[in-house]
Write a structure and sequence with these properties.
By secondary structure, the chain is mostly helical. The chain has 22 helices and no strands. This is Transcriptional regulator.
Length: 473
């Protein structure tokens, strides 16, 4: 006899689109709107990892009611409106959540669901119901960050499974909850890299990657979940590969990108394939293999063409331009740059991948600056690098340091040592917040160029301060 506590089967009903929320987004792309949500969260001291996919799930009606952190952010963004005005269901009506009364303790409301990116788990969904609490805790520690992002390495502690020295048990078949945690890990790694650079993150980020591929080996309960799992594991491999790339571990980065590419080919995922080839092209350029950079960028463009994202095609054209610059092919570089600018000018679209949130006008200028620098056109490179640093959102500390380091080097090589010293000093001011071997290597090169110009204004102070910094391990 069935227990009365077990709910009767319910028919599947597709979610209703949230048209009210879609109207609030207006003409902005999902990625642009997600950036506004993250900015609003920072204004009130909240931490959310909103991205284009989250916005899409809200608008599709998959998220009937946001968790408490998102609720506070949305109500801050749209003062005077209620959750119902924003198209959400009343919290008390959402199954899987205990209804709260006005007398609930503030601590309860603040902590319940605080680590759940999407408030969509349902106790009646077999994808979520058949995983015991112990396994869920292990996977949560594997994939979710905790604490403040002020010190990046410390906040990645839970990602590295450092709370338990014993090996994690082999996971059962993955459900939607595990895949959501994996996707959230990718977003948080990217966020921490934007703020702090890669050096303090790479070693800790390899543990969730191992856990992700253990989940792949275990399989998933549904095909849709399996597709998300493969895409998430591939994106995590690319993110970890980028951390290796930016911290100077090129062989490790190449291995991680190849792993992501293999996953993309295995599952026929053109978006993941384009991303893997994009990063492979960037790595090949930095590693002194410009012809490989051109080939990888062209392969990325072939994979990305059906995806319908001009911004993605623009970025890939820039990757190709970097390869041509490395080959000293000015004509090939200029043609790719013109193509990149024209594609960028078409504006954002709903088909832009969520990982491209970093690619705006500042990054376009910064990558063009690198091309002209490689070709030895220092004045032109400096102009673009200066624009990049000026246009960059202050949230992206690492990129501000990167563009300013590029500017310092271009000015130094272009015969303007005093201005180079000023820019280099600004980078030194940021290195307490940013840990990037790539940026430190650029600054070391600038210091070498400036050595014969010690008597120029500000150069001696810059060189002395640079020399006094501890060297990266």
């Amino acid at each position: 006899m069935a227990s009365s506590s077990v709910p009767a089967p319910r028919p599947h009903r597709p979610p209703l689109p949230n048209v009210a929320f879609r109207r609030l987004r207006g003409p902005r792309s999902p990625a642009e709107f997600a950036a506004l949500v993250r900015r609003a969260a920072r204004e009130i001291g909240e931490r959310v990892s909103c991205d284009a996919r989250y916005v899409g799930r809200v608008e599709a009606g998959e998220i009937r009611c946001p968790n408490y952190a998102y609720e506070r952010v949305f109500l801050h963004m749209f003062p005077g409106r209620t959750l119902t005005d924003l198209g959400f269901a009343p919290r008390s009506s959402v199954r899987g959540r205990a209804a709260r009364t006005a007398g609930d303790a503030p601590g309860t409301a603040e902590t319940d669901g605080a680590h759940e990116p999407y408030d969509t788990q349902d106790p009646y969904d077999p994808d979520d119901r058949h995983h015991d609490d112990e396994e869920s805790d292990v996977l949560r520690r594997a994939f979710m960050t905790g604490g403040s992002a002020t010190v990046a390495a410390a906040s990645l502690g839970p990602l590295g499974l450092s709370l338990d020295a014993s090996p994690a048990p082999r996971p059962r078949r993955a459900g939607a909850g595990q895949v959501s945690a994996l996707e959230e890990a990718v977003r948080r790694i990217r966020l921490l890299d934007d703020r702090h650079g890669a050096d303090g993150l790479y070693r800790r980020a390899t543990a969730p990657l191992r856990a992700a591929y253990a989940l792949l080996d275990a399989g998933a309960t549904r095909q849709a979940t399996a597709d998300r799992l493969h895409a998430g594991a591939g994106e995590l491999a690319i993110s970890v590969g980028w951390l290796a790339h930016d911290s100077g571990r090129f062989d490790d980065a190449r291995s991680h990108y190849a792993e992501a590419l293999a996953t993309a080919r295995l599952t026929g995922d053109p978006a993941l394939e384009a991303h893997a080839f994009c990063n492979t092209a960037f790595l090949a350029r930095d590693a002194g293999r410009p012809r490989e950079a051109v080939r990888a960028a062209q392969a990325a463009q072939r994979a990305a063409r059906p995806l319908g994202s001009p911004r993605l095609m623009s970025l890939l054209a820039l990757r190709e331009a970097g390869g041509w610059a490395g080959l000293a092919d000015r004509a090939g570089c200029e043609q790719a740059l013109v193509r990149a600018q024209a594609l960028f000018g078409r504006g954002p679209s709903d088909d832009d991948p969520e990982w491209m949130s970093f690619y705006g006008e500042a990054e376009l200028e910064g990558l063009e600056a690198q091309c002209w620098s490689t070709l030895g056109d220092w004045p032109r490179a400096a102009r673009h690098a200066r624009r990049a640093a000026r246009l960059q959102d202050p949230h992206f500390t690492r990129n501000i340091a990167l563009y300013t380091a590029e500017l310092a080097d271009d000015l130094a090589r272009g015969g303007r040592p005093d201005e180079a010293a000023v820019a280099g000093t600004r980078v030194l001011d940021l290195l307490d917040q940013v840990q990037s071997s790539r940026i430190q290597a650029m600054l070391a090169g600038t210091a070498r160029v400036l050595l014969p110009h010690r008597r120029a204004g500000g150069v001696a102070d810059f060189l002395d301060r640079h020399a006094s910094r501890p060297r990266a391990v």
